[in-house]
Amino acid sequence: MNAPTPKRSVPGVTTVIPCRNEAPYLPRLLADLAAQDYEGQLEVIVADGTSEDGSAQIIDAAAVSIPWSSSARVLRRIPNPDRTIPCAMNRGVSAASHGFIVRVDAHATVPPDYVRKLTEVIVRGELHVVGPRKEFLPPSNSLVARCIARAVSSRVARGKTELPQRASFIRPVIHAGLSCYARSTFLSVGGFDETLRSNEDFDFDYRCHKKGYRVGVRTDIVFYSFSKSSLIDLARQRLRYGFWRSQSLMQRPASLQPRQIAPVILVWYLGAWIGALIAGGQIAVPMSIVVGGYALVLIGAGGVLGNRELGIRGVVLIAAALFVVHVAWGLGFLAGGVSRVLGSLRSIGDNATSN
Fold first, then answer.
1. Is the pLDDT at 148 greater than 70, yes or no?
2. Of 99 and 260, the one with more pLDDT
3. How far is CA 2 from CA 31, 40, 58, 67, 202, in A?
4. Which of 167, 246, 287, 352 has its CA 20 to 30 A from that of 202?
5. What is the pLDDT of residues 221-236, one digit of tens each?
6. Contact, 128 vs 183, CB < 8 A?
């Protein structure tokens, strides 16, 4: 595969990939990026968080092969000893050779026009920060993996929609995710918050929004991310998402979105319902009706998303995945809030002791 000859009138782009132990996905992703139809110079920086699965060797081998050994396409690996995504992004942008940045996660695949379509929105001045529509693919052909991918791609799991309404449709949002932006925009808001281990992209986009930058999604370009392969891994991921959303919310309370309140209310309600059942109070009956209605919504969503091809077991698994997404995120959010409060109380106690 030969790299295209870069046009001088087209600005160069640096793609930054946070990476740790992504060996199963890197070959495909690097091939996707090598096949980009972008006519300018394309630099790919992989910020490797001390991977132990051969990821570094995959990157280094690709870097000296065609087309990465050309002047139009450059692939580099830089160390990220902190192993977190915010640190990876900050190091990657700091090392970037070009003025436009595109973030790409390692466990993903992107279409050939991905970099071009995102970058042209910034170059034309339509937005300052732009992201793609995001869909999920199963990492394997197992029924559980396929059901999880369908569940997390749905509105029921995500609480929002970025579906295209017309060609090149640009939808203004507060959070784009996997964003493209000018390096100057990145630097003006201070980059990523390195105190966050997750939810760093929402925090970054929100700070851009508050600074007056236009943030949006280009819905005719899709980023395909590989979802989790088991319900346990999905629960751990969503617990982490909820926990760190709570942590970032403590710093920027106004960033709370209405859709993010629903999982927290659900967890509180389920806890109260279980307490009512244990106590044997009369309130348990009407509460059980509400819980039953929620269960029916999940089953109905499982039926629609299963599209008759996954069978009854698939319907149940999709419903279970949706339940895990809602409850794990809500529990994580509450745990993050409790952790922050206890941490504040401990710091007050420490200060009192020191005095």
1. yes
2. 99
3. 12, 14, 19, 5, 37
4. 167
5. 999 999 999 999 999 9
6. no
Q: What is the mean pLDDT of the chain?
A: 89
Instruction: Kindly give the interhelix angle for 284-306 and 143-152, rounded to the nearest 10 degrees.
Output: 110
Written in H, E and C, the secondary structure of the chain is CCCCCCCCCCCCEEEEEEECCCCCCHHHHHHHHHCCCCCCCEEEEEEECCCCCCHHHHHHHHHCCCCCECCCEEEEEEECCCCCHHHHHHHHHHHCCCCEEEECCCCEECCCCHHHHHHHHHHCCCCCEEEEEEEEECCCCCHHHHHHHHHHCCHHHHCCCCCCCCCCCEEECCCCCCCEEEHHHHHHCCCCCCCCCCCHHHHHHHHHHHCCCCEEEEEEEEEEEECCCCHHHHHHHHHHHHHHHHHHHHHCHHHCCHHHHHHHHHHHHHHHHHHHHHHCCCCHHHHHHHHHHHHHHHHHHHHHHHCCCCHHHHHHHHHHHHHHHHHHHHHHHHHHHHHHHHHHHHHHHHHHHHC
Q: Binning pLDDT at 50, 70 and 90, where does residue 255 land? A: confident
**Contact present, 152 and 225 (Cβ < 8 Å):** no
Is the pLDDT assigned to residue 33 strictly greater than 50?
A: yes
Structure token digits, residue 153: 């791609």
Name the band, by pLDDT with cuts 50, 70 and 90, for residue 305: very high
Burial (CB count <10 Å: 0-12, 13-18, 19+), residue 158: middle
Beta bridge partners of 258: none
Q: Note whether 193 and 85 are within 8 A (CB).
A: no
Q: Which amino acid is at 275?
A: G
Q: Which domains, from first to last, does the chain contain?
A: 13-228 (3.90.550.10), 253-354 (no CATH)
